[in-house]
Amino acid sequence: MAMARNSDFGAFMEKFTLLPPPPTSSSPQQLPLAGLTFAVKDIFDVKGYVTGFGNPDWARTHSAAVSTAPVVSAVLSAGATCVGKVVMDEMAYSINGENAHFGTPTNPCAPDRIPGGSSSGSAVAVAAELVDFSLGTDTGGSIRVPAACCGILGCRPSHAIVSTFGVIPMAQSFDTVGWFARDPVILNKVGRVLLQLSDVDAVQPSHVVIPDDCFQHLSIPSDRLTRVIIKSVEKLFGPQVIKHVNIGNYVSDSVPSLEHFMDRSNEHQEYIPSLVALSSAMRCLQRYEFKTNHSEWVTTVKPNLGPGLSERVWEAVKSTDEHIGICHSVKTELQAALSTLLEEYGILVVPTVPGPPPKLQTQASLLEAFRCKAFGLLSIAGVSGLCQVSIPIGTYDDLPVSISLIAKHGADGFLLNLVDTLYSTLKEQFQVAEKQSD
Predict the structure, then answer these.
(1) Which of 17, 93, 111, 297 falls 20 to 30 Å from 435 in CA-CA distance?
(2) Cβ distance 263 to 277 under 8 Å?
(3) Is residue 41 annotated as part of the catalytic site, yes or no?
(4) Euclidean distance between CA atoms 42 and 50, whole angstroms
(5) Is 12-24+32-195 in CATH node 2.30.30.60?
(6) Is 291 a catalytic residue?
């Protein structure tokens, strides 16, 4: 670790202890999360505490929560102990993890790099081994990006399958409650509690789809990753399950409503046009829903917002409802197209983000290039509402490298089991590839 053990890496807003309810007839050992600690993003209601939404003006103008979000209560009831609230990006409107008011949590595996946001404190608390798991939210990528940046596991479940009650909304068409862990077993256990799943046997994937075009746009050699994925899948399930696809072409052919969002300027020609269009549709609907949720507060309070964030929030407040119907059509068409591609037990493997985490205080234009490519990848599961888990598989130039597995809507239990099965093999194969390239 880069810092002293007694440091909290700037992850925590406030520390407190919420114990699980006292055991009844069953002994505490039988509770699935007994003995585990967790932290919660400052977007979840905890009774008696103000939910700050990452902004001091929000905290100042809102009173303490009168009840605790059901997801927080669920993991407490399963035996886990909450140790506090953690920092987030203001109003959940960034994937960087930098907060102008409360400071930027330090990325434990790359201290000079962004931790990723908006669930920055949640990811850092887990990566720094301050807690066993943490709760965050993911609208545009706020679980998956910090998981990738901090070299840990992060799960964005199927949309609308985990309760968002008692969680400040950002954009309901995309909002999900997600979680982080360093260990796939814990990730799975937390998932079974939040998804209310019983233990089921792992099912072998019917096919594993590799979208070669997504890997070709990485800032590290793409074959380093695709080779690791192919070798791992072949070792566990056989070569017959591997399928290759050009996801950009598949999406543009299967989602006719995307035509409206295609960029004809060639400004983003270094990336996949249909995925850039997909992220444009996502951000259009996100802006509109954010405005519906929060414009009254923003225009009344005129909060002090950090650089970059302020422009984004006011752009949302001034947005109109034109094209919103087309955005919803894009969502419906994409979910149908990916359901056809994946069927019951198929998996799509994508890079979580386009490369290593950018350096802290990177200039806006360079950060925008990273954001544009990242949102293209993130919008696949984000817009379709499918479940996705980001898996750290190693480092390249001493910086974390992750891939993601995506499964159909509602296949969360299958996906979590598969992550558990594949995790160690992916890491082993990555190390083998590293030795071979030395």
Answers:
(1) 111
(2) yes
(3) yes
(4) 9
(5) no
(6) no
